[in-house]
Amino acid sequence: MSQPLEGLRVIELTTAWAGPMAGRILAWLGADVTHVESPTRTNSWRQNKGVPSPVNYPDLDPGARKYDRTFLFNSQNLNKRSLVVDLKTAEGLAAMRRLICASDVLLCNFRGGMLKRLGLDYDTISRENPRLIVVEMPAYGLAGPHSGYAALGPTMEMAAGMSAMIAYAGGKPTVTGPSYMDPIGGFNAAAAVLTALASRQATGLGQHVEVPQVEAAMQLIGPELLAAAEQGGEPAPNGNRIPYACPHDCYPAAGEDEWIAIAVETDAQWQRLVQQMQRDDLARDSSLNQLEGRLAAADRIDAAIAEWTRGQDKHDLAERLQAQEIPAAPVCTPRDLAASPYLAARGFFSIVAHPLAGTHPHPGLPFHIGPAPADRPAPCFGADNAHLLGQVLGMEAAEIGRLEAARVIADSPDPEA
Amino acid sequence: MTSALQRFRVLDLSESIAGQYCCRLMADYGATVLLVEPPEGSILRRKPPFSRNGTSLTFRHLNHGKAIRRLRPGPAVPQIGALAADADLAVVPVGFDAAALRNANPDCIVLDVSTFGAEGPYRNWQGGEMIVQALSGMMNNNGEAGRPPLFGTGNRAAYAAGLATYISGLALLLARDRGNDGRRASVDVAETAAAMSFPYVLQYAYNGTDRRRGDQEIPAGQVLCRGTWVCIWVYPFRFAAMCRTLGLAHLVGDPRFAEDADRTRNWTALFDIIQKALADRDAEEVVRQLQEAQVIAACAYRPSELARNPHLDARGFWEITQMEGDEIQVLGPPFRMSATPRRFAAAEPMPERKVAG
C-alpha cells in the first residue's frame, strides 16, 4: 500500500528533539519532510559547538564532519531531507518563502514570534497558499504572561506539574532523565498536523495550530491535576511508592547498578510473591493481607524484598515473577534494550546505513499500520540543497552554484554555529 | 464552522487508558465517539484518583465528550456488530475478536491497543507504568546516581500510547479517503515507552558505551523560594547575567565560579549561595526577572498551583463541560486549532447516552 502521507511536503524549522521527532513521525508516515538549518545556526543535536565528546560518535570518533556523525541528530531525523539556508540573507529568505508556498505543512519549534519576524507566519503565507498548515510548538503558548519565557524539556516538565510528583522521600522535584517532554511534544505536534490534515481533506483549507507543549503534556497527568483542583492537597512523592499498590518499587539485583521493578497491584499477587520468596512469616502475617496494611509496613516489606532480590539476575527473576502473574520487569540499560526479545519481536529496531556514520540498528516508532519501506538515514548537512532549489523551486544549476558560493546555502556549518 | 473530525464515527471498546485517551482526543476534535462499556461498567471507572462524590477522575478525564452505552448482559458480539455498522474506526483491546466488527462493517478501521502486544515474548506479561518504564530504558536514566532509579509519575507512557493510537488512526483514515486499503494498526504501551526513551540505545550501537543516571551534566539547580521550587538553568554564557539579576554580582569575580569547570566543581556551593539569597523571594517574580535577563528558569509547580495559575487563567485553560448529568471541570485542549478549535458538543443530551448506574 502507499504510505498515508505520501505526496505531502513538510518543512521543518526545528532543533534538538521535540520538533524533529514530530517531523520524523510525519516522514515515517510517508511525508516528504525537509529539516531546515542555517550555516550560522545548526540543530543543537548536531553538536557543532565546543569540544566533541567521543561517546556521541561511531567508534568514539567525531571524524571529519562531526555534525553528520552524532547519534543524537541521526536518531531523530531519519527519512528526511536537509536544507541549509541562511534566512538572514534576502535570497535565502526568498527561497524559503517560495518553498513554504509550495508545501503542505510548516512545522516550527522556535520561540513564538520568529515566523512573524521573518514574514513566514500563517497569516502572511496563507494568502498565497491557503492550503498550508502551520504548526507551532511554543512551550507556554503564544499568548499569556509566560508566553515569552524560554524553556527546555526539564523546565517544561516542572511547569507542567510533573516534577513535583517525582522525588525521593523529602527530596527536591526531579526531572525525568535528560528530558521526557520532548517526545511528548513530538507526539502532540504530529497529532496536531494529522488533525489539521483531516480538516483540510474536508474543507480544502489549511490553518494555524498552536501546540503549547506544557499544556499538552498536562493531559498526561490529567486525573492528578483534576484531583488537586477539586481537593487541594499536595503530592508527597516517595521514590517509586504509590498509594494504590504495595510493594511498588525497584530492588537491587545481581551486578553493579542493576535493578528489578516489582509492582504488587492485588492481594492475590502479594500472596504469590511471598510464596516465591519462601517467606511463610510474611504470608501468615494477616496485617499484610490488604493494601492498607502493606502500605503501613512498606519499609519492612521493601527491606525483605531487597534482601531476596540482591544477587539474583534481574532478567531471570522478572521472567519467573511474570510467569506467576506478578508484575515485574528488569530495569533495562541501553545494552538490555539492544538485546530485548520483546523489542526485536516488535520490529522496533531497523538497520540503517548512514554514509558517514556507518550501519547500525536504530530505535523506531510505535506505529504499525502496514508494511513500511526501509528507513533512510538522517541527511547529511545540506545534502538536499540542490534537489530542493533545483527540482522543487526550478532554479538553474548556475544560480544554485552562485548561492552556494555566497554561503546563502551551504553543506558545512560555520565553526561553532 | 465545522470541527476537524466531524465526519468520523468512532467506537471505543478499548478498556484502557491509551485507547480511551485516543478516542477522547477524537471527540475533542469533533468525531462522534461512542464509549461501549461492559455490563458492569468500564474498568476505568474503578481507577483512582476519585472525586469527592466517588467518580473516577481518570474515567472522567478520559471520556468527556463521548456518548456512553453499556452492553446488556449476554453475548456482546451481536450488540457490538450492530453498533459497528456505521463506524469509521474502532479501538479494541488485545485479544478482541474483531470478526464481528469486520462482518458488520468491512470498511471499519480497527486499532488494537495493549500494554505488551498480542504476540511476542511478553504477550502474557502484566504491569502498569513502572513496569513499562523499567523496560523502556527511561527508568535507568531517571534519579540520582547511587540511589534507586525512579519510574516517574502517573501513567504517562499509557497516555503517550493513546497519542500514538490517535496518530495511527488518523493516518489510516486519511489514507482510506485516498483509496488506501489499510484497515488495521496496533499500538503497544511498552514499545511507545521505549520510543520515548532518550536515544542512548543508538549511542550504545554507535560505540558500545552505556549511560546511567547521573552521567548527564545538566547545568541546572533548584532553589526553594517561599515554599515553591524554582529551577535555574545556568548556561556558561548566562552566568554573569544570572548573578546580576539575582543581586549576586560579586559572584562574577569569585575564583570558585570563574570558569565553567570551576562552577561545575563548586556547583553545590554556588547553589547554596543562591538558595540563601532567594529563600524569601517570590518564586514567580524570580522567574520573571531571570527570563527577562534571558536566563532559562521555571517554577516546579505543584498540581494545586496549576489549578490557580495566572498564566493558565489568562489563557482560559480550565474549562467546564457536562458529563453524565454533572458539570465538570476539564483541562484545556492539547492543541489549539485556528479554524476548527475543540468545541464541546452543546449540553444537549446525546442520543446514545446512558447514565451509569
TrEMBL record, chain A:
* Assigned keywords, A-Z: Transferase
Positions of transmembrane segments: none
Q: Which top-level group of life is the source organism from? A: Bacteria
* Entry GO MF terms: transferase activity
* Pfam families, per database record: CoA_transf_3
* Keyword Protein biosynthesis annotated: no
Spell out the InterPro entries in the cross-references: CoA-transferase_III, CoA-Trfase_fam_III, CoA-Trfase_III_dom3_sf, CoA-Trfase_III_dom_1_sf
Give the protein name, as stated in the record: CoA transferase
Q: Which organism is it from?
A: Paracoccus aerius
TrEMBL record, chain B:
Q: Which UniProt keywords apply?
A: Transferase
Organism per entry? Paracoccus aerius
Q: Which GO terms describe its molecular function?
A: transferase activity
Q: What is the lineage of its organism?
A: Bacteria, Pseudomonadati, Pseudomonadota, Alphaproteobacteria, Rhodobacterales
SUPFAM superfamilies (alphabetical): CoA-transferase family III (CaiB/BaiF) (SSF89796)
InterPro entries referenced in this protein's UniProt entry, alphabetically: CoA-transferase_III_domain, CoA-Trfase_fam_III, CoA-Trfase_III_dom3_sf, CoA-Trfase_III_dom_1_sf
Q: Does the keyword Transferase apply?
A: yes
Question: Out of the domains of life, which is the source?
Answer: Bacteria
Q: What is this protein called?
A: CoA transferase
